[in-house]
Design goal:
The complex is a heterotrimer of chains A (455), B (294) and C (297). By secondary structure, chain A is α/β, with parallel strands linked by helices. Chain A contains 19 helices and nine strands. Chain A has two domains: 184 residues, Periplasmic binding protein-like II (D-Maltodextrin-Binding Protein, domain 2); 208 residues, D-Maltodextrin-Binding Protein, domain 2. Chain A is globular, with a radius of gyration of 24 Å. The longest helix of chain B is centred in the N-terminal third of the chain and has 37 residues. Chain C has 297 residues and is mostly helical. Chain C has one domain: MetI-like fold (Orthogonal Bundle), CATH 1.10.3720.10. In chain C, strands 1-2 form a two-stranded antiparallel ribbon. In chain C, strand 1 and strand 2 form a beta hairpin. The chains are: A alpha/beta (455), B mainly alpha (294), C mainly alpha (297). Chains in contact: A-B, A-C, B-C. Chains B and C meet through helix 1, helix 3, helix 4, helix 5 and helix 6 of B and helix 1, helix 3, helix 4, helix 5 and helix 7 of C. Chain B: Belongs to the binding-protein-dependent transport system permease family. Chain B: InterPro entries: BP-dep_ABC_trans_perm (IPR050901), MetI-like (IPR000515), MetI-like_sf (IPR035906).
Chain lengths: 455, 294, 297
């Protein structure tokens, strides 16, 4: 039926096209020619084309061009076809719906359209464990040896819990609380080490008309909340929570985390929920630069994001891990990292794996590092300068690293754990939902996802 | 005494009307003017109060948007697509609307109803099925012609636009055609004119104001459309203006170039404003004569 | 003599292109939407599982969908009524009164309708801004400036009405022009004789204007439903993204979220089917309820 239909369609449209062929030859057929030309080349066996798609982020599109050129020098028989776009999901999504897959996709989880999550949920990824044991092209070490340990043991990189890695960690950045260090110096305040100190500071700041807390959008609570769960119950508790273990949200540990968020909601600048959308979140970040709020959860990219924004006199970026729950307790900073992966249906999975291995070479890493993109390669963070040095040294000064995210499940219609856990924070700030309602909703969502967990 | 009283109440009434009209006019002019002013601000000015006047005239925004953000070439794509879509639409919808409105034939009620039902179909959920269909077509094309022709093709995009606009356009036009007295065709038939000539030479010229209305309405929707365009044109070079604008707005964790973005906004807005001002007189006229009486 | 064959051929050639396009690009995709609503499909794999009406049963048990439904219906009702009232009021002012700058007002009022949603959302972000926004600045003229700012886009109870405000702003001009067009067809003599009988303006409006443009009003009711469903989606995507915490989630934004973000394409299409049937039914009901005897001028 479908085939017949498309043939009929093809026939009708060819007729109309033939009539108007002259009109659109300029733009339409030129680009249509390009992939066809590549196909014939591939068939002749001289070179093979590797299709690489990457999300254009703050690091820019040029860096990928540079990587492609460098790789083509290392591997002359491979030609790289790049798709770099800020709306990558919209650009490659439709094509993939009909079976046209890039070989390599650089796009992390947590994007607005959740394309990567969809592939994980559908078991639609190529197993990349092998890449870990591959020797980096042009070097003697394997990828595994070069990587900072821990990055390939997370629920994000190994989504199915059987120990195999399907998504490779790329650029990482520590997440925590950002503040104006200049203001703290000026007022003689110290950065709180525990949440109790935090609340005390909050009351002090309130007296001066400064709110304690701001957040760009509720989406930024993921890193915050993951770190908080680690503080409350340790990594093992965190893992159980991420796997929707029964009753986990009613435990004492979870209650501690919920209490902090609920209390924080009371200390949040009042206008934050109104600007917590994609058009206006910058205004919530501006609150820190204007000394209207003290802390916000964020990642290192915020420095670039706000680079053109005006700021209070003496403003200086400060960055800290989350305060500890008890005196002397563990402090955590969540490690955010982007992922690169290969769709299960990629035509050149073998080439894709080699290409990914190359990305961890010293050559590639230094190209990325030039634009501030830091991969989890041993020794990379020592080479950093300026603000970045401060940020990446957070783990050296005692904070523990938290990694991972809610485990992937088969799609459950109408249930979104991140909307339930993080999205509700807006409602806590405006007081239209209570903490108990929040916990209740999380428990319910968690219950319905448990059955859909990937086995 | 009595007339005096009436006179003053009349003046009071007029006064109220003016207040209301001026209030609405201000509510519209101020924000639109604001968008224009924003387009000549420098990026740093956007972090302060949005209502501050620009510190200077920063026309660099427009050059940046036009060249760096490639809005210039996107504009060309938009012009081509919109022009083709409008011509296709008129050529296809006018005869259909005419026939549906003025001829009784087997199935005429059915087709009238079906096109009416088409009004309820929303592009937002059929865009993916359309994409899949075209892509399957491309797969067969690749084996027949050796190259895909349906996706990344401005003509096909225009064709889809025209198809999307059919229900509303036919509805609008046939409404108008229904109001014409039968005598026109009878007279033409006495003069020996065939069906086709009657339609082209007698009826169409009378429908001019309605056609202008149709052109304006559809120009606006084609020009501002981005969901279909984003899906069917995946090659970056082939973007249309609104999609280019969306890309300009997607900051992805880097500093937003507000100035450029608002310059882009103005570039999208300007052609529609110009066209509207050019045809606005005909607009009301077209609807007056048109079938919007129902 | 009667050229039946020619007539048939003429009808065929006039209708065929439109019908073909219509079937290919509207009917078949719509059928596909109905078909996919019976499947469970993530969107990027080959295995589509047929699940019958399961997507629909899940939909009707989902609290979120009811919230979405409520928001959408609220928007349809409020936006339609407010737009309708204002458009009618301004249309009758502009077509019944002799005013200075009549043409100017008419041109200006239509402008919001020609702007892209992206422009409108940027404008309203600036109007609704809690600290620097025009609206709060204006309200502060009447109350102490130190009182808490109103969170037009942040307060769950207000945000949907803020959305209404933007949508009404955008739509008034369009419907105003429509009503003006049909008011222009009402013969002046009717008003003149009413004037002689001493009928007030209000009386003339309800006794002459409304009944005589009734068919037009009925038509626009259908437009209100169709366009509010569609526009509310575009506005939500541009302005709030469905937030805060789902308070502005509408039919189509929820559909998008499920079909693309939550990897439940089939479920998303089920929402599409419900929206289609709902708008169709609503229009039919309204059409039946508003049926009146047709008045001729």
């Amino acid at each position: 039926m479908k085939k017949l239909l498309s043939l009929a369609l093809a026939a009708t449209l060819t007729l109309s096209l033939a009539a108007c062929g002259g009109n659109n030859s300029g733009s339409g057929s030129d680009s249509a020619n390009a992939p066809a030309a590549n196909n014939t080349e591939a068939a002749s066996g001289s070179t093979r084309t590797l299709k690489v798609a990457a999300l254009e982020t703050a690091y820019g599109a040029d860096v990928w061009q540079e990587i492609a050129t460098a790789y083509e020098k290392v591997k002359p028989e491979v030609k790289i076809e790049l798709t770099i776009d800020k709306n990558l999901e919209d650009v490659i999504g439709p094509g993939m719906k009909s079976g046209d897959f890039p070989d390599v996709i650089h796009l992390g989880v947590g994007q607005p359209k959740g394309l990567t999550e969809t592939f994980v949920k559908d078991n639609n990824l190529t197993d990349l464990t092998e890449v870990l044991y591959m020797t980096v092209p042009g070097e003697s070490a394997t990828v595994r040896e070069k990587l900072i340990p821990g990055f390939t043991d997370t629920t994000i990189t190994n989504p199915y819990g059987e120990g195999n890695t399907y998504l490779m960690p790329m650029f990482y950045s520590p997440c925590g609380l950002f503040f104006n260090a200049g203001l703290f110096e000026e007022k003689g305040w110290t950065v709180p080490q525990t949440w109790d100190e935090m609340w005390a500071l909050g009351d002090k700041a309130k007296a001066e008309g400064i709110a304690l807390f701001s957040y760009p959008t509720t989406g930024y609570f993921d890193a915050f909340f993951y770190a908080l769960l680690n503080e409350a119950g340790g990594p093992e508790f965190f893992t159980r929570a991420m796997n929707y273990t029964e009753g986990i949200w009613k435990t004492e540990e979870a209650a501690k985390a919920f209490d902090v968020v609920d209390k924080l909601a009371n200390y949040t600048e009042k206008t934050v929920p109104a600007n917590g959308n994609k058009d206006n979140f910058v205004k919530n970040q501006q609150l820190i630069l204007d000394n209207k709020a003290l802390f916000m959860p964020n990642g290192t990219w915020v420095v670039g994001e706000m680079s053109k924004a005006p700021r209070a006199d003496g403003f200086k970026w400060g960055f800290t891990a989350l305060p500890a729950l008890t005196d002397g307790g563990d402090r955590y900073s969540y490690t955010f990292f982007e992922q690169i992966w290969v769709p299960a249906k990629a035509k050149n999975a073998d080439l894709a794996k080699e290409f990914i291995a190359y990305l961890y070479s010293d050559e590639a890493a230094s190209i990325f590092a030039k634009v501030g993109a830091v991969q989890p390669i041993k020794g990379m963070s020592d080479k950093l300068e300026g603000d970045n040095k401060l940020f990446y040294s957070v783990y050296d000064s005692g904070a523990k690293a938290a990694m991972g995210a809610f485990a992937t499940t088969d799609p459950v219609e109408g249930v979104s754990i991140s909307d339930t856990v993080f999205g509700t924070v807006d409602s806590l700030v405006t007081k239209s939902k209570t903490k108990d309602q929040w916990i209740e909703a999380i428990t319910k969502a968690s219950d319905s996802l448990r059955g859909a967990l990937k086995k | 005494m009595n007339t005096d009283h009436q006179h003053s109440s009349n003046r009071f009434y007029k006064f109220i009307i003016y207040i209301l009209l001026i209030a609405l006019a201000i509510i519209i002019i101020v924000p639109v003017g604001w968008a224009f002013l924003a387009s000549i601000k420098q990026d740093a000015e956007f972090y302060g109060s949005p209502w501050a006047l620009p510190e200077g005239i920063h026309l660099q925004n427009f050059t940046d948007a036009w060249q760096k953000a490639k809005m210039g070439s996107y504009m060309l794509n938009s012009v081509i697509t919109t022009a083709i879509a409008l011509s296709l639409l008129l050529v296809i919808a006018l005869p259909a609307a005419y026939v549906l409105a003025r001829y009784k034939f087997k199935g005429s009620t059915f087709w009238n109803m079906l096109f009416m039902a088409g009004l309820f179909i929303n592009i937002n959920y059929i865009v993916v099925p359309i994409f899949l269909m075209l892509n399957n077509g491309d797969k067969s094309m690749r084996s027949i012609l050796g190259q895909p022709i349906f996706l990344n093709n401005l003509f096909i995009l225009a064709l889809v636009y025209a198809a999307m606009a059919l229900p509303f356009t036919i509805y609008l036009l046939s409404g108008y055609f229904k109001t014409l007295p039968k005598e026109y065709e009878e007279a033409a038939s006495v003069d020996g004119a065939g069906y086709f000539r009657t339609m082209v030479q007698v009826i169409m010229p009378m429908a001019k104001p309605s056609i202008v209305t149709v052109i304006l309405f559809n120009f606006l929707s084609f020009w501002n459309e981005y969901i279909i365009s984003m899906t069917l044109l995946t090659k970056p070079g082939l973007r249309t203006l609104p999609v280019g604008l969306m890309n300009l707005m997607a900051a992805q964790k880097s500093a937003v170039q507000y100035g450029q973005m608002y310059a882009g906004l103005v570039l999208v807005m300007l052609p529609t404003l110009l066209l509207y001002i050019l045809v606005q007189k005909k607009l009301t006229q077209g609807m007056t004569m048109g079938g919007l009486k129902g | 003599m009667d050229n039946r064959k020619g007539r048939g051929r003429f009808i065929f050639f006039c209708l065929a292109p439109a019908v073909i396009l219509f079937i290919i690009f509207l009917i078949i995709p719509t059928i596909d939407v109905f078909r996919m609503s019976l499947y469970k499909w993530g969107g990027y794999t080959d295995h589509k599982t047929f699940v019958g009406l399961q997507n629909f049963t899940k939909l009707f048990q989902s609290e979120k969908f009811y919230q979405t439904f409520q928001n959408s219906v609220l928007l349809i009702v409020v936006v339609s009524i407010v737009t309708f009232a204002f458009a009618l009021l301004f249309a009758s002012m502009l077509s019944r009164e002799k005013l200075i700058g009549q043409n100017f007002f008419r041109i200006i009022f239509y402008i919001p309708n020609i702007l892209s949603i992206v422009v409108i959302s940027a404008i309203f972000s600036a109007i609704y801004d809690p600290n620097n926004g025009l609206l709060n600045a204006f309200l502060n003229l009447f109350r102490s400036a130190s009182s808490d700012p109103i969170l037009w886009l942040g307060d769950q109870k207000i945000v949907i009405y803020s959305l209404c405000g933007a949508m009404v702003w955008q739509a008034i001009g369009y419907y105003m022009v429509m009503y003006m067009a049909s008011m222009a067809n009402i013969p002046e003599s009717l008003y003149e004789s009413a004037e002689l009988e001493g009928a007030s303006r209000r009386h003339q409006f309800f006794a002459i204007t409304i009944p005589l443009i009734w068919t037009n009003i009925r038509t626009t009711l259908t437009f209100f439903i169709i366009s509010t469903i569609n526009m509310s989606f575009l506005f939500v995507m541009a302005m709030t993204g469905g937030g805060p915490d789902g308070a502005t989630e509408v039919f189509l934004s929820y559909m998008y979220k499920e079909a693309y973000t939550n990897s439940s394409y089939g479920y998303g299409m089920a929402i599409g089917v419900v929206v289609f049937l709902f708008s169709f039914a609503l229009a039919a009901v309204l059409n039946a309820v508003t049926r009146r005897e047709h008045l001729e001028y």
